[in-house]
Amino acid sequence: MIIAITVPALTTQLLDCYRGELMYKSERYYVPIHEKANLTLDEAAAYFNIGRDKIRKLTDDPDCQYVLFVGEKRLIKRRMFEKFLEGMYSI
User: Fold this and answer.
1) Rounded to two decimals, what is the model's pTM?
2) Of 5, 18, 38, 42, which shows the fewest CB atoms inside 10 Å?
3) Is 88 helix (H, G, I), strand (E, B) or coil?
């Protein structure tokens, strides 16, 4: 019996899963995740090792300082979110 497993589109774009070496593949160039100013929910989940739903829940607050909306697209301000996490004991 052969079982087909579908791979999410994100895994084809992420080349390495190590923090600091995580790369995002673009059509023209590669940008290391640790150098990007804003991350998508999937990128932030992979980078910070936090679930996508948990990040979405954290950014639902209207006063959230580390989220940027581009239309309906939700981006995480990486440096601000890192500072937020440094001050947290648990989330």
Assistant:
1) 0.65
2) 5
3) coil
